[in-house]
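Re: duplicated header lines in exported structure tokens

Our pipeline writes sequence and tokens for each protein into one text file. With two proteins the header for the second block appears twice in some exports. Here is an export where it did not happen, for reference. First protein block:
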Amino acid sequence: MSLRCACVVSLSKDDFGKILHFRRFPTVEKRCKTTYGEEYGPIPPLPIFINNLLVRLSLSADSKQYVEWRDRSDMNMQLPVVEVPAGKQEIWPVVSIAQNSLLICCLPFVEDMKNVNKENLLNIPSISVGFSVILGMLNFIQSDERNSSLMQLDNYLSLSMPFGTPSDVELSCASYIQKYHTQKFLKKQPAWKPFEYKGKQLIHFKITEFARSAQSDQSGGICHFETFGQVSVKADLEGGLNEVGISVISTDVGHPLMLDSIVIHPCVNIQSGLPNLPSGFPKRLRFSPPLHEFVVFHYCSLQPKAPPIQGVFKMLANNSVELLIQLKLNEKVKNSFDYFEVIVVFFNRGPVKKSEFYSNHGTHKLTEDKYTLKWSLGTKFPKDLEADLSAKLEFHDKPILPNSDPFCVDKNCYAQLNFKQSNSTLSGCNIDAKNVTASEGSKPKVLIERTVQSAEYRIWNSYGDVPFPVNIVNKYNKVFS
């Protein structure tokens, strides 16, 4: 699985269509010519190839005009894979992605072209490889200042895909090899860890958890709530292939850890045979960490079953409205936040003309464009764990927001909760710091960072509709009368 060529084209207004980087792999092209025989089609001259590609993707200046070979009814568009005309022949498959004023494309070498079903791209490994290469190039270009990264892109391609055949190379490793390419290593290192770390030894674990919720006070109280997260590690350890062992435990000794839908990194070894495994999850994991931070596993949690913050949002009328937001913090949740704010965007309305606010806690304000209400609760709820905000708003009858949500019209609206909490998790997931081991006898310092933050935590208007089926959501007991 190799690539015939890779290219970066500018899509900015100043230099649209300019070729910023092009790399052809002659050895792959020679293999392609030998394999295809009479059906071989060479890569056309670069300006013609790029121009036809821009036309094919409808990115050129004449994209609104009808082009027969592109717009005829029997054409089958399978983005990001397209077919580009080249004289009497067609160049296929061309994989391309347009992002951040750049078009990055490549031409994978499909060895068994005669037996390929173009309708089923998932069964063509070289296309998947080409797509991965493009994503890697995008990450490399965005990892540094664009001009300097484009200058170094050729070196990156030489490291990540020598002779046109991609290999698994981490960006941080590639950058180090480029910087210290003259260094002579005393022993051979794996590609994912090309050099040994020297310095203070530290293993830094990050347990990042997210809380997603959709709530509404209609029909007796509706709530869809889920908790999911990941455990990542950055290990600064001396030694070539130092193996690390960790134990996953619960912060509450009285309650076992209840994790579900666990996806473990394929390079992590699972130690079986341990007693009292919650939901079949192995508590002991072993891995040889790379130099960069990587995710050990992803998970969903069955706990807690109740949302950390329960709320009610009411907004009634059109140009002159009354608004009410009530929030209650769950008693089992720590009353300490890095930040906590409520955002209400007034979609499909004019800007606010007049406003009156009252709240028992925090500060509130309208944004400069008068389209968004921000209520900041600071770092804590009041002692009774309840906070409320009421407002009377009058709107101008003016043009709507350009990015308005088509669903959020009239009474269909929501209040979004944005919060972050450090040194805490809702699931109770934790790493046993006393049971972290390193195979080469070192005793590194262990740092464990745990955070919980919101992800689409929304409370929908009690008087409006909700964009999800009510019959599949969970229900909770009302806390507001």
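Second protein block, exported in the same file:
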Amino acid sequence: MTVTDVLGSGQKPAVSVVGIGVEYPPSKQGPEFAEALALRHYDPTPALQKTLEINRKSRIEYRYSVLDPDHEYWHQHQVPTIRECDVIFKQYGIPLAVDACNKAIEDWGGLPAEITHVVAVTCTNTSNPGFDGPVCQRLGLRNNTRRVLLHGVGCGGGLAAIRVAQEMLLGATQQGKPARALIISCELPTIFTRTELDSMSKEQRPNVALGLFGDCAAALVLSNGIGVKREERVPIWDVLNCETTHLEGSEGLGEYKIGPNGYVAKIDKKIPLVIGQSIQGGFTNLVTSTPGVASETSNYNPGIYDWAFHPGGYAFLLAAQTVLGLSSYNLRKAFEAYSDGGNTVSSTVISILNRLKKERESGVKDEEQQGDRFTSGKGADKVIAVAFGHGLTMEMIMFSKLAPPATA
């Protein structure tokens, strides 16, 4: 949705990304860690051997965990209960999310008290009240900040949160009110590693989750552009359009089932095929429904964009690359995030956007135009972000990099 949709005039989108923060925990795990853990607790059955083979071939160099290698979680004989996992999430996840939010707020340049809306998301915790409350309290947000907590949306949650926040800010725009939204994603799937292993052992079915998921918290600040103060940064991207689509025939392919010991992921090997069948149509629909973009024939070429494509697995990226005719350069930051971090669920796409932002800001600065807030940038002028949530649901967003101000 754009300003044109809301107000009936104007060219510029109403909502912009003005701050990003990503925080990975300090404990770094290579594939050998998962293998040693599995063999410490279980016999090398055919199912485990296949699981370990998948782990070795994942192309993930490192994943991150809030739990260091000496933590009792990895070594205790009994598989932790979901209650114990909840305690771990609150102990480590809330501070991790606060750190990511502080980075995003600092990047934005505004004050926590100026945040009007919060959209938080996780699929690795189900506590009531949710984790967003303590995070907002630690950040010093106002008590009347409008908060929404999303759950059950899986890996698509980061983009779903942007879509929800955009709708909130457009509502404020319609009323002529300044609005700033903080998006918070916090995912700690490694606290369910023991649960995943136990499920594999009981069912004697290989489990790709052992070597795929890692922990991460990420945050974004969005602005509706009204009442911008001098200290707020120049927007990183405008949000041009958001689309969400349920993929027919995908029921049961991607799930995160809850049990007495936590969550167990189900990632069907048919998912890359479904992605391949859906992504071209989703991309075309996104372009067609974006005012100011749909009329240009060149915008229907996937290769002109940078792609923040959620790496649910390496095969996800290959499916998109093949069907859309993308180069590895188009997906460079998605491959990078996958190799260094793995699948961090809803926070992954925000991490990729952060990597694209950092690449852009590594360009030569033009101090005369915008001081230390402007960089010439690298990469494409537009970014397509894609993630697939449980169900399966495809979330897609088109971002546009702001053009440099004209010189006198």
